[in-house]
Amino acid sequence: MKELAAPRMYGAVTVGERGQIVIPVQARKTYRIKAGDKLVVFARTGGPIGLMPAESLSRFLDRGVGDVPKTKEKPL
pTM value? Predict the structure, then answer.
């Protein structure tokens, strides 16, 4: 099984008045994030906040849904 990479800190950001942040350049390079890319924001209440490129999530869901066997719904 493939090992997960250790978490890495890319620096600190400041939230602007409109709720905007700037993603540090090294993180943008590492994850190939460009201007105009859509990111999905996710978190658990009181836990860390994560960002994921929307295209990566879409590909993940496309592959996962294709692997789920189709079932017929039974009437209630």
Answer: 0.66
